[in-house]
Amino acid sequence: MNKKLKIVTIGGGSSYTPEIIEGFIQRYHELPIGEIWLVDVEAGREKLEIVGNLAKRMVEAAGIDCQVHLTLDRRAALKDADFVTTQLRVGQLDARIKDERIPLSHGLIGQETNGAGGLAKALRTIPVILDICRDMEELCPDAWLVNFTNPSGIVTEAVIKHSRIKCVGLCNLSQSMQRMVAEILGVDKSRFLLQLVGLNHFLYGTHVYMDGKDVMPEVLKNLKYDSAHKPKNIPDIPWLQEQIQHLGVIPCPYHQYYYTTSDVLENQLHDYKEHGTRGEVVKAVEHELFELYKNPDLHEKPKQLEQRGGAYYSEAACELISAIYNDKNLLMTVNVRNNGAIRSLPDNVAIETTCVIGRYGAIPLNNDALPSTVSGLVSVMKSWEEMAVEAAVTGSYGAALQALTLNPLVPSGKVAKQVLDELLEAHREYLPQFFRA
Amino acid sequence: MNKKLKIVTIGGGSSYTPEIIEGFIQRYHELPIGEIWLVDVEAGREKLEIVGNLAKRMVEAAGIDCQVHLTLDRRAALKDADFVTTQLRVGQLDARIKDERIPLSHGLIGQETNGAGGLAKALRTIPVILDICRDMEELCPDAWLVNFTNPSGIVTEAVIKHSRIKCVGLCNLSQSMQRMVAEILGVDKSRFLLQLVGLNHFLYGTHVYMDGKDVMPEVLKNLKYDSAHKPKNIPDIPWLQEQIQHLGVIPCPYHQYYYTTSDVLENQLHDYKEHGTRGEVVKAVEHELFELYKNPDLHEKPKQLEQRGGAYYSEAACELISAIYNDKNLLMTVNVRNNGAIRSLPDNVAIETTCVIGRYGAIPLNNDALPSTVSGLVSVMKSWEEMAVEAAVTGSYGAALQALTLNPLVPSGKVAKQVLDELLEAHREYLPQFFRA
Amino acid sequence: MNKKLKIVTIGGGSSYTPEIIEGFIQRYHELPIGEIWLVDVEAGREKLEIVGNLAKRMVEAAGIDCQVHLTLDRRAALKDADFVTTQLRVGQLDARIKDERIPLSHGLIGQETNGAGGLAKALRTIPVILDICRDMEELCPDAWLVNFTNPSGIVTEAVIKHSRIKCVGLCNLSQSMQRMVAEILGVDKSRFLLQLVGLNHFLYGTHVYMDGKDVMPEVLKNLKYDSAHKPKNIPDIPWLQEQIQHLGVIPCPYHQYYYTTSDVLENQLHDYKEHGTRGEVVKAVEHELFELYKNPDLHEKPKQLEQRGGAYYSEAACELISAIYNDKNLLMTVNVRNNGAIRSLPDNVAIETTCVIGRYGAIPLNNDALPSTVSGLVSVMKSWEEMAVEAAVTGSYGAALQALTLNPLVPSGKVAKQVLDELLEAHREYLPQFFRA
Amino acid sequence: MNKKLKIVTIGGGSSYTPEIIEGFIQRYHELPIGEIWLVDVEAGREKLEIVGNLAKRMVEAAGIDCQVHLTLDRRAALKDADFVTTQLRVGQLDARIKDERIPLSHGLIGQETNGAGGLAKALRTIPVILDICRDMEELCPDAWLVNFTNPSGIVTEAVIKHSRIKCVGLCNLSQSMQRMVAEILGVDKSRFLLQLVGLNHFLYGTHVYMDGKDVMPEVLKNLKYDSAHKPKNIPDIPWLQEQIQHLGVIPCPYHQYYYTTSDVLENQLHDYKEHGTRGEVVKAVEHELFELYKNPDLHEKPKQLEQRGGAYYSEAACELISAIYNDKNLLMTVNVRNNGAIRSLPDNVAIETTCVIGRYGAIPLNNDALPSTVSGLVSVMKSWEEMAVEAAVTGSYGAALQALTLNPLVPSGKVAKQVLDELLEAHREYLPQFFRA
């Protein structure tokens, strides 16, 4: 790899693009990128134009020797790529709003990566991602696919099961957890290793090694998630301390959906009534961001992007790409093929866990067997994800209904079926696998 | 074993006692019982008197050489027993009514063996059962404990984990499933083997062997639970056919709580409003039964008992005892130590599965790995049961809250905690492990 | 199954045939056999004639309504069969003699089912058995294949992996072990259950249940194999008591090859020098038997057959067939698909273990995890068997050499390679898979 | 850890000491060692004096700020140590000579870490190492034990099972394998990752990642061990190419003992006749080395030490210590607790595998399930090691005999027992656990 790198970002018209561009600029000294291709679809043409021009101005201002290309021709972009990142959203924010609104309208949690909304997003996204993989197998078979399209774990599993492309699924959650542990211990995050294992958005901390000792008991005793340590899209609801203390491991912020389901639902229903869905809020924020991006005098990532939520995502992507390229043996928590890392799950599913990253890719660190307090829950969560992948790939209505039945956020029965039917109908144009002639 | 057998029935004042007495009378030619001891506690003294005298009349009328003893002195009864059956109910029907009423009053499913009610029943029952085991270890260490006190699987697990007494947990559910399959196939149940595996009240049919072939596909296609094939206490609600067809295995009647949760809940809330809880209905039925039992001219099990629900329970107990005594190699579905029979669960938990029964006890038949459609759900159900056993034995509030958090019928969070607090308070007198000074 | 049964015995010209005929005659009241077809190949024509005519005289003398057919046309025999038994020997006794002689000539153990000789026998036999399966799939797809062709475990595994025919592999070893335990306990074998698990000719007793208790410690303490409890073909060599006592389980007679390898070898080399190989001894015995069989006044199995070794084999076959036909739930130790019964081995291999037998076939009883004293040895033995099956099916020289390398009775290296080369050459005519043009 | 480090080397009188001293000197810029304590026993007093003085001269000549202490008082040395390395040899080289000579005299392979010799060495060494651990638990409970006393895997397992001290077991074999792969690929070893898994001296290469691709097939095709890539103590014997090619993984040099047993034995018996045992050769080399060490003008590791065999051992130890101290995330192949890294083995045994090394210790990378060609062999090898640990800790004769019975290099039976008896007798003074009054 001594030529300059070609990087392709699919969903290049995303409001996050300035972040990833900034990440590449900051790492240019160790990551010699020659070309960045931003790809989008017709529906995203205008956004691609706006954010792509900002990207060009950023690169130019940085004075690095790198070309930014904007295109709707995905295959042209993929030809001979070294790394492909995906930040696409099938159906744009309007689809997300439906994913949130339909479950909420039936009194269920409405969230874009969890519950019924997560299923709908998976059903729309997986066929597109697998299409991209088909193109990559032909045009850049040795490139790495760095996925941060949600639901990241389910999407990664689809690639693992149905493509030969090397894929790593990213999430920024592990970084929030590291920051919280650092604060509890009162030390810099370089001083300890937080070992993590589970599924995407369903991740547990199992060990905290500091100076050769496992200080987990100390950390657990002082565990707290306040607004500083949780993603913006998760409501600020107190955990049940007795329940959490009994876990023996550190839950992740998203676990609130599962450990305080009734409270999150109450909060969401209230918010929904008052402010509409989170997707609608985001849509307004995005609109403002794009207004900013249009400014021809803007040559850097605007501060406001950080309030968008989802920060550190692009940071993680750039870090990962650099760790692979520079063979860094970096420890990072990503989504990969299980292969025995969680012994109670099948080999060929996606899990999220601390991996060592280098030119060889991402190899999970050895994990203890999951404690009995969480092992069963991880198994049933993986089951619903497996059903979601099956439904997305085959268009099986039974598999989709099974997925919702297994999902702990969706009460099974008539309600589940009705929500599923409405979601399928609402996204009909993106779900050809369910509506074949 | 050439002496005559001594059988002890704990909870002997139960309205079911005539059924088990009938079972012993019918098997007297192969099961030479010399003594039957009916034991109860002070609170059950009157019922014991009534039903015990009926038992005496039944035995006398049958003309068999067997003594029936009524006693409140458990240790005297247990001395040198061969088989001990348990059909006790800690706190009597009033406790059951609370188990149903408290969850329902918070909008949750209220049922005596599932969900929050099942937890409360386990917390009350396990200490009593383990006390009995302590006595047995001293007074009849080689006797078999035949448990049909609910929640049967959880209670059996407590005995497996915390006693050396040989224990088999019974349930009559497998017989309903056999009858349904027999009807679907249009043959007598002796013509096929329905292989079953799972947990108590959470049991799946995995194979139907007829004439050396597995006819499962044919059975699945015609699967139906109507009122003829489900226990009386389960509401008559349609299954979601697409979901069930996708399972690849036969669910049990109790699975309706898990596969159509919202519909069962709606039905329960409606019934609760109209008729009160199931426990209240049963209480009335019981009252009538005991009025009948008082009749000094009654010398046999009255027909009305069959409408009580729970039929075939005593039948199963007698069948099991005879299979052990006569070394029958009978195939029967019971609750036993897992020991690898379900590979995804720990060795030392209780499972329910088809076993071969003989003088050696109950040995599970080899099972396939559970299909991915149900494996995760079985794991999380076993997790909640494990937490329930831990809570019952240690009095850990955290374990009890964890149990409810994992239970798919209870939404986690404030509601779960509140229901738990109310249940603990309501049953305070039976839960010394939670209210130590 | 209300028609009369058709039974086919392949290798019908074997000297054992009178035993299986006697078994069928004795069970005629419960096993309504209408036709017995004895099949052999051209090389066995004369023997088939002799023993087949004896069979006819036996059936006639018994006065049962059953036809005995003799044929070289296997396909005609298989048409619509209910049970097919295999007792064939590819290459007849001359091949066996080579299997023993070639290893011995290099200073290795020479035995027909273990070590290098066992590999050669597997390589010759498996292609023939799979050919029979192909015919059965076409002509009698629902028939049971009851294999007692050695090496029985390896042959059964080949059928499991490469055919859809239902197959049970038999061995008479478990019966020797039962007799020994009965003698140690001083009770009839109906009084206890000896639970067995392992591989064919590599079987361990793990539990001895008597009157509901596991009396294994008592049995182990008094363990002894003397000439009464071991097959005739195993030398009478003392076990190392300290080593056996440390096992914690009961070894089988064939384990002497593995636990006292040097002593067995010494004994074999001595015998070989004095008397030639075991195969040569057997050949002489067989010659005498066939002389007896020719006697037209003989109408029953001659006593001398019992000295032949291998007694109880046909007994086991008849018992198995009757247990299946009559749905007996008989506990019997046979070779079947593992399917998790030994957890440390793959699902799709053959193991030998106590099964319950009925119309559904043979289902293994649940086993404990193997103790660490024997688990590794069972794993490496299964590995060599897996390599043997692979070599037999594909003709891979590497797999065959791997098999010998893994086999504990064959020192790896040049010697193994030389023995393999000589065996392949010696049996060239029966090994087309290794000598394709 | 901002104070200067205290390092203790037990068996400090070893001829290898100059190598480890050189390693510390070379890393002084990153590894601020303040004190090195060389500890030995009375029998090693003279050697300790000689090599210890050389060590002092080396440190002085290097001009680093570090004290070298020589002592026979182990407890004084261990007080507050940061790292403890062990390179002791219980019974010195004379014991090794017996370990080689006794098996050879019975026609068995005689080697210090494999077969019967390896067992004897384990039995002598483990009690001493566990004594050291007892001291460490009291005097420096947070120190790392870096073991390179052979048999390294078995010794490490004893520590894992019977002590709370953090222990990493070293071997230099993985470096030979890396050099061989580098030569086959024609690239520097920094260009690829050779992933290794197995047991100490029984290690397999499972993946060779170069530039993100697994190039294992290419490496396997060109596999060769010639004198450049194998330890000096392993004879130069050709591998069986067909057998090795069929493995699908890369064996380690020591695998020759297992894959060409008869050839190694022949070679050893020849060498033994001609030159005596390897131990005797080494003894002569050591004598010469100590003569050199006495030279007061020698201030550096003499070249001749590299011919001693066992080179790179100390290199590995220094590298490991620095990786821990500097939190390097170094990938290195060491012996650690299995914990699921090899799924077919128990959690609490020692395995050797590629780990990531940092302040948290050594965490294994995730491994594939072992291929069926080697999985069984690894299991039986681990079984013998488990028995060896049990025998060493408990003094059980049965466990020791079991260990030899399972070991593929020792034919079971009378010979094994005789060799065991002679070894126990010969080492009687070092085996108090076997000779308690």
Automatic annotation (TrEMBL), chains A, B, C, D:
<dbReference type="InterPro" id="IPR036291">
    <property type="entry name" value="NAD(P)-bd_dom_sf"/>
</dbReference>
<keyword id="KW-0464">Manganese</keyword>
<keyword id="KW-0479">Metal-binding</keyword>
<dbReference type="GO" id="GO:0008706">
    <property type="term" value="F:6-phospho-beta-glucosidase activity"/>
</dbReference>
<keyword id="KW-0520">NAD</keyword>
<feature type="binding site">
    <location>
        <position position="171"/>
    </location>
    <ligand>
        <name>Mn(2+)</name>
    </ligand>
</feature>
<dbReference type="Pfam" id="PF02056">
    <property type="entry name" value="Glyco_hydro_4"/>
</dbReference>
<dbReference type="InterPro" id="IPR019802">
    <property type="entry name" value="GlycHydrolase_4_CS"/>
</dbReference>
<keyword id="KW-0326">Glycosidase</keyword>
<keyword id="KW-0170">Cobalt</keyword>
<keyword id="KW-0378">Hydrolase</keyword>
<keyword id="KW-0119">Carbohydrate metabolism</keyword>
<feature type="site" description="Increases basicity of active site Tyr">
    <location>
        <position position="112"/>
    </location>
</feature>
<keyword id="KW-0408">Iron</keyword>
<comment type="similarity">
    <text>Belongs to the glycosyl hydrolase 4 family.</text>
</comment>
<protein>
    <recommendedName>
        <fullName>6-phospho-beta-glucosidase</fullName>
        <ecNumber>3.2.1.86</ecNumber>
    </recommendedName>
</protein>
<feature type="binding site">
    <location>
        <position position="150"/>
    </location>
    <ligand>
        <name>substrate</name>
    </ligand>
</feature>
<dbReference type="InterPro" id="IPR022616">
    <property type="entry name" value="Glyco_hydro_4_C"/>
</dbReference>
<dbReference type="InterPro" id="IPR015955">
    <property type="entry name" value="Lactate_DH/Glyco_Ohase_4_C"/>
</dbReference>
<feature type="domain" description="Glycosyl hydrolase family 4 C-terminal">
    <location>
        <begin position="197"/>
        <end position="410"/>
    </location>
</feature>
<keyword id="KW-0533">Nickel</keyword>
<feature type="binding site">
    <location>
        <position position="96"/>
    </location>
    <ligand>
        <name>substrate</name>
    </ligand>
</feature>
<dbReference type="Pfam" id="PF11975">
    <property type="entry name" value="Glyco_hydro_4C"/>
</dbReference>
<dbReference type="InterPro" id="IPR001088">
    <property type="entry name" value="Glyco_hydro_4"/>
</dbReference>
<feature type="binding site">
    <location>
        <position position="201"/>
    </location>
    <ligand>
        <name>Mn(2+)</name>
    </ligand>
</feature>
<dbReference type="GO" id="GO:0046872">
    <property type="term" value="F:metal ion binding"/>
</dbReference>
<dbReference type="GO" id="GO:0005975">
    <property type="term" value="P:carbohydrate metabolic process"/>
</dbReference>
<dbReference type="GO" id="GO:0016616">
    <property type="term" value="F:oxidoreductase activity, acting on the CH-OH group of donors, NAD or NADP as acceptor"/>
</dbReference>
